[in-house]
Amino acid sequence: MADTAAATSPIAKRQRGSDEAASPKPEMPSKYVAITEDAHFQDISTDVLVESNVFDVTKHYIHSLADIHGKYEEFMVYGDAAKTQTVSLVHFGEKLCGHTGIVHGGCISTVCDELFGWTMYWITGQVGFTAYLNVNFRKPLPTQTSGIIYTELDRREGRKVFMKSRVEDNDGTLDKAFGDDSLFNVEKHFIHSLRNIGGKYESFVVFGHVDKKSTTSFVHFGNSLCGHEGIVHGGCISTICDELFGWTMVMDKAGFTANLNVNFRKPLPAQTLAIVVTELERIEGRKVYLKSTVKDAAGNVYTEATSLFIMPKPPQ
């Protein structure tokens, strides 16, 4: 039944085209197979894509990558009959890295943000915009992992819909090796491997201040980084903030994102040249606190974000 369910997803269909020989379909985790066989859940991958009618798959931040080997190699969503939650399977390919061999924190944030949108539509029958996204990274997620994402309604207050999610592997542990020793591989990086693809990141320039406490970056968001048509995906903005927090850290130190907190002040139109100012707030032992602002050339603020990075323990 699992293969039948996967075949109904237009995303899964596109993935298995020319890359099928080079990239065998990942084995579906037993935990997710149980969901596909549970009568209380149904495959909504097609339904949300077709019925919501709010985005163009070819310009979408996630779904336009389905044909690219090493990106999102599986993306399936099941909704429960009570319409309170979804359970999703996302296979994170080898080209979704931040640190080599580790899924980029912005990639995980993007998937969570995307599935909050799918779940909201499943629960309410309406689409909405992300106003706030808070992500806690408990452990590094290795690439080539089939992540199982549980997304559920927390509560509703008028027009406000609060949701929560968690990402697990089949064992629910994620106790795996970190991957390669090298810190960064452009060809496998979530952002930088897209810079030669039209409509994606059409410029990415970072200037570091000589005091090593801030960076000013210029990122041109192309027209294929959308969530809603013509509007940059909230996960894409979160990814940029997370990435530039890392660049600001790297000027003087290295670390991993422990928390990413993003406030979306207004929708960011595609084809915007954004200015992202990222600053060090304070350091407390191995904890590094940073903040950033995303604005346009006219000074309009679209997003504000904060982050907590953890520096590795010094060698013994």
What does it look like?
- 20% of the residues lie in helices and 33% in strands.
- By secondary structure, the protein is an alpha+beta fold.
- It has a single domain, classed as Thiol Ester Dehydrase, Chain A.
- The strands form 2 sheets. It has a 7-stranded antiparallel sheet with strand order 4-9-12-11-10-8-7, covered by helices on one side. Strands 1-2-3-5-6 form a 5-stranded antiparallel sheet, with helices on both faces.
- The longest helix is centred in the middle third of the chain and has 20 residues, at 105-124.
- The termini are far apart.
- The model is unreliable at 1-21 and 174-182 (pLDDT under 50).
Lay out the secondary structure.
Blueprint (H helix, E strand, L loop, with lengths): L1 H6 L2 H6 L14 H7 L4 E3 L1 H8 L19 E9 L4 E8 L12 H20 L7 E5 L8 E13 L2 E9 L32 E8 L5 E8 L12 H17 L5 E9 L7 E13 L2 E9 L5 E10 L6
Helix pairs in contact: 5-6
* Helix-strand category: alpha+beta
**What is the number of helical segments per DSSP (H or I, 4+ residues)?**
6
Estimate what percentage of residues fall within beta strands.
Answer: 25-35%
Strand count, sense and closure of the main sheet? Answer: 7 strands, antiparallel
The fourth-level CATH homologous superfamily is Hotdog Thioesterase
Order of adjacent strands in the largest pleated sheet: 4-9-12-11-10-8-7
How widely separated are the two ends?
51 Å
Number of strands: 12
Q: Which topology does CATH recognise?
A: Thiol Ester Dehydrase, Chain A
- Count of all domains: 1
CATH class label: Alpha Beta
Q: What percent of residues adopt helix (DSSP H or I)?
A: 10-25%
- Radius of gyration, whole Å: 19 Å
